[in-house]
Amino acid sequence: MENVLRSGASFILLLCVSDLVSGQIRYSIPEELDHGTFVGNIAEDLRLNVWELSARNFRLVSDDRKQYMKVNLENGILFVDERIDREKICRQSSTCSLSFQIALDNPLEIHVVAVDILDVNDNSPRFPNSEFSLEISESIAPGARFHVESAQDADVGTNTISTYQISPNEHFGLKVQTRTDGSKSAELLLEKSLDREQQSTFHLVLTAVDGGIPHRSGTTRIIITVMDINDNAPVFDQEIYRASVAENAPKGTLVTKINAADLDEGTNAELTYSFTSHVSQRIRELFKLDPETGEIKVQGVLDFEESRFYELDVQAVDNSPPGLAVHAKVMVGLIDTNDNAPELEVTLVSSAVREDVLPGTVIAVIRVTDPDSGDYGHVQCQVPVELPFKLQKSLRNNYKLVTNDFLDRETAPLYNIYISAWDGGSPPLSTNRTVLVSVTDINDNAPKFTQSLYNVYLMENNTPGVSIFAVTALDPDLDQNGEVSYSILENQMQEMSASAYVTINSRNGNIYALRSFDYEQLKHFKIKVQAQDAGSPPLSSTAIVNAIILDQNDNAPVIVSPLTWNSSASVEIVPQSVYAGSLVAKVIATDADSGQNARLSYQLLEATDPSLFTVGLLSGEIRATRSVSDQNIITEKLVLCVNDNGQPSLSSTATIFFSILSNVTEKSSGRSDEPRQSEYFSDLNHYLIIILATTSFLFLVTIIFLVVLKYEQDRNIAEDYRSTVCCYRRRNSNGAFNQRPALHETFNSAGPVQTEGYRYTVCLSPESSKSDFLFLKPCHPTLPFNELGVRDTNARK
Prior knowledge:
Largest sheet: 4 strands, mixed
Helix content: 10-25%
Number of helices: 10
Shape: elongated
């Protein structure tokens, strides 16, 4: 039955979208609705577009621990989020409502929403006991009324008890009465005289029926015992007693005294006072009735704000069987005292406020209440004047906490706002609340470098990838607004982007070289470094890093004159032109380094005849110390060393061969008719014969390998021709080969000079084809081998 009622209540929704009065919206819904039940359309009632709910940070603000309502931000519908039990929330109160606030930003709007909870018939009447006994004297005349147990129903209004019924019988009826608070009580009415001898006991069923649809009911059994004693009932001297007491009255304070009289004598006139079953347990906890004296005293803590008056049903019962009873009412009113301090309900619009908000921005909404009445409930409120905040009164007992000045997070990132409220009592009672408001950061500070210009000194030949410098920029902002990232702005360095030379760690500002710098190519460069925070929009600043490359002695001297090949040069001199102090040759060397690293000195390491030539230490000039005679050898070898002044010093060596030409014309003409040596040609013929024989043999073996072997043959021929390069090699002490140009030598000479450890190869020059003399000359290193072969062929002819 209970489930049927709840299902019916969920379909019959008493939806009452009220008016927007003084910023308040009111709805009415029955209790026990299912989750998701429609309550109202907040967006339509506030005349808002649905998209504004999310854009303006629409939210419900309530002080209740449980949130019974929610709003669908996609359609603006207010719906039930949790099943509501009216009796649990409001108990027996005739009115019951849930209140909360709606807050919207940009601009700020505060609306109060009240949802009235309508009672549904979800509780059946209940009697305190499943049965109770009643003793009635048989001498009582018809028309007498007897009090019976009253049922309790947790519902209110029409859903509470509407009537009582009694099982059919011929002696008793039922009289239903309505009390001042609207509740129903029943009395048993004797309709026909009793005869104990005919029937001494009656078993009746008393039914309490509520007014809900469908009806709910509860029953109890009445056991009536017929007695024939005591024919006079007690009588109170007043039907209604009225009294008042202060709500702060201590325990034991006398409220009033009731009095009843009985015309009987003796034990039949002895009375006992007590509360009737209509008095709730809560009232029994607050008041105590002395059963003998009839004094009603305070025994609990009274609260004017809980209830302003109490209705007590009392009875006086005589002590003679069957115990006749009489009933009366005691109306107790409470006198209010200033016993409640003001209550501050602070609803924070935002606990974090941006530092760039304008004065007048709402921080919180404050509701001040005092349950006391009169001047006791008049409340004043304030905040400290030294803070950049103030209170603005909006509605009655409602304030807005707003900013009163500009905020600066870097100066004051946090405020403890002390709110005090006091009532009009004497002495006044006060309440204090502290609101913690933090100031959130905005990106109002750009990163700042410690210097606008940095000078970096970097030695050349640095290791790529190693940090060469670090820049630092500071930003006083917080979080991402203070997160600094570094970058290099694009600029050109020797027609290349700066990013090709250096890179920077975006997090810590360390600058790394991407390549090894060469002082001879790049002596200095500038890069522009940018520090940018992560704010929106980001702020940035720049600094210049001036990198100066320092020279290192990494270049050995290079001899540019006379022209050398494989560190050797040949110079021809005529003896007639050589005399003491004459300039024979001049060695010119350069060094790509600078400063002391490029300061050169010349030194003679080795000479065939050390007494014949001298070398200038700084000039490199080779001068003869004496004249050259015919007795001197025809070739003079000088080994020169050129040193720079670096640390450590680098050097280069060169070997210069001086050919002393003596009567060159006579020797050449005298040897024109001599036969040429055929050694070179014999060797070549042997090679050709071997190649032809090999080729013929391979052709007979297989045709498939002919192309491959022919390619090998051609390559071998090319190698043989390359072997005719006119140079000799001499293996030095460490196993390397030094190439030096061959000296001019006639074919009919007894043998080459210093033949031990040397290898000579004939080089036929065009000049030799026109003369009877063949000379050994150094071949030019750039001369192609194919050209060399053609020249050799012409020489043979």
